Amino acid sequence: MQIAISGGKGGTGKSTVAVNLAVELAKHFRLVLADLDVEAPNDHLLLDLELTNEEPVNQFMPKFDYSRCTKCRKCAEVCEEHAIITLKDGTPFLMPNLCSGCRACEIVCPVPGAIQEAFRVIGHTYVTETPYGFTLVTGKLREGEERSMPLVVEAKKRAKNLDYELLMVDTAAGTGNTVSKAIEGSRLLIAVTEPTPLGIHDTELILKLGKLMGLRTWVVVNRADLGDTRKVGEIAKRYGAEVVAEIPYSENIVRSYVSGRPVVLESVPEAKVFHELAEKVAEFLGGGE
Amino acid sequence: MQVAIASGKGGVGKSTITASLLYFLKDMYKLIAVDADAEAPNLGLLLGVEKWEEEREHIGAKVARINPDTCVRCGICYERCPYESIYVDGEGNYVVNELTCEGCNVCGLVCPVPGTITLEQARSGVIRKATTKYGFPIISAQLDVGRPESGKLVTEEKEWAKKLMDELNLEHMIVDSAAGIGCQVIASIGGADLTILIAEPTPASLSDVQRAYKVVQHFRQPAYLIINKADLNPGFTALKEWANEEGIPVIGEVPYDRAIPRSMAMLKPVVEAFPESPASKALKEIAERIAEEILG
C-alpha cells in the first residue's frame, strides 16, 4: 500500500514530515520512501546520506536513417511536442530537448528501420539504504531537461519493484500532473501546509486535486504559530479533509533539518508530534487491512 | 531589461523578496511583474491583488479520450502508454486518467479501431492581468490541477507582459519563477537578461540552487545571489563558498525575521508593513544595490 506527502506550496515542510514519518513508520512496516520531487530532491540531505545505486534514466529519441527515410513528414505531424522539424523537402530533424520520448514518431513511420532507437540520459534514480530501517528511492532530473514526468514514472517504478509493505511518496511542490502521478495509488494523502495566506491558497489547490482523485486527505499544519490555523481547518473541511497535526515553528526542527538527523530521534518535545502522527497513520492503515 | 528570480527549492522566499524589491523599485523604474509559478501562484496575493482585470483561458493541454462504445478492449493502449495513464475501470473499460495524461497521443496511434481514441484540446489554466495598488501591472497564471506542467503557459505570460511593456513604455520585467528546474523555470529564465538566485544557508537549499544555477549557465546569463534567512544556520559556510567559487556576486543577506510571516498575513510586502524591521532594512539595501549595479 501507498501513502503520499504533498502540499502545493514549496517549502512548507513536505520533506521534513516525510523523513520523520518514515523513521517512525519503519517500526511498523517494511517501508520504502520515494523522493519524487525530481527537480529538487532533498530527502537524502535531510537524512545526511550519499545517494547510492545510481541508474540512468534513458529516454528514447528517434534517430533518422536518412538512407531509408522517404521524407513523408508523418513523424513531424504526429509529434505533439513539435520536437521534429522538417526541411522544405521533408527531411526530418530532431530537437532533442523538446522530445518527450513517447515514440509516436516511431509508431507512425511507414518504413521499417527509418527511425532507429537512440537514447539520452534525462536523469538518474537511486536506491539508498538508510540507518533507520527503511530504503530511500530518489529520482533526480538532469539540469536543463524540461520534463520531469518520465523521471517521476521511472523513480516510482523502481520503488515499486522493491519489497515493501508501505510505500511513502514525497512529491514536488505544485499541483500539476507530475504531482498527481506521484500521488496516484495512495490510500492516504497528507498535505503539509503553513497557515499563511499563501500556504492556505496553495493548500486549496492540493485539496482540490485530492478530491478529484478521490483520496482520503489529511492536513498537517507546519509552523502553526505563524498564522491562523483555523482558516486551514475551514478550507480542509470544505474539501472533506481534516487537520490531523500542528507543528510549531521550532529551532530544534531547524537544527535537525540542517544537521541531517531527523528530529523524531531526539528527546525533544517536537518529536512527540511526529510520534503521534505516525501512530495515527499506522492505525489508519492497519485498520483498513 | 528582463530579470528572473529563481531558487530551485520552494519556500525559500522568492515571492516574498520579489514583492519587497518591486515595492522599492517601482519608485525608480516603470515595471511589470510576472508570476511564473503557475502551479502555486502567490505573488499577486503578496501584492494585495484582489481583482483580476482581464483573464484569458489557456487551451494548451491535450488529453486523450477513449470511446467505450467502439473500444474492443484489446489493451494495446494500456500497454503502450509511456506514462501509465490508462487504467481499467470496474466494468473492464479502458479509461484515460486525465490527471496524469501528457497528451502525446501514442494511445490514439496504436489503437486498432479508427476513431476510438481521440486527442482533445483541454483547458490547461488561465492567464490574468491586474494593476497592483502600487501602480505597476502584474501578469499571473494558474494551471488547472492535474494538467501537464507548462512552460508554454509561462511563455505566453511573458509575451503578454512584453506587449504591455511596449504599449505602456515600461522598462523592466521581473519574473518570479516556480520551484524546481523543469520547463516552467526554463521558460522563466530563458529570454531573461540575468537571474537573481535566492537561497537559504541549508544543505537542501544549496543543493537546489546549484541545480537552478546550471540552468542559468545553460543560457549563459549572469547570476546574482540573495541569501535569505541568512542567520538561520550560522555554522554553514558552504553556500557563500560556492557563490565565491562560481563568481556569483552576493547582493545581500536578509535575516530571519518574524515580521515576514506577519506581513504575509496582512497581504503586504514586509517592507511596507514593517519598514523598520531588520529584514526590511536589508531588503532596502538590496533594492538599492540592484538599482545601482544591475538595472542602472
Mean pLDDT of chain A: 95
Number of helical regions of chain B: 11
Radius of gyration based on Cα positions of chain B: 22 Å
Q: Please state the structural category of chain A.
A: alpha/beta
Helix and strand element order of chain A: EHEHEHEEHEEHEHEHEHEHH
User: What is the 3D form of chain A?
Assistant: elongated
Biggest beta-sheet profile of chain A: 9 strands, mixed
Number of strands of chain B: 13
> How large, in whole angstroms, is the Cα Rg of chain A?
22 Å
Instruction: Estimate nothing, just give the exact number of structural domains of chain A.
Output: 2
Q: Regarding quaternary structure, how should these chains be classified?
A: heterodimer
| Major β-sheet strand ordering of chain B | 3-8-9-2-10-1-11-12-13
Q: Globular, elongated, flat, extended or rod-shaped: what is the shape of chain B?
A: elongated
CATH class of the largest domain in chain B: Alpha Beta
Q: At the fourth CATH level, what is the homologous superfamily of the largest domain in chain B? A: P-loop containing nucleotide triphosphate hydrolases
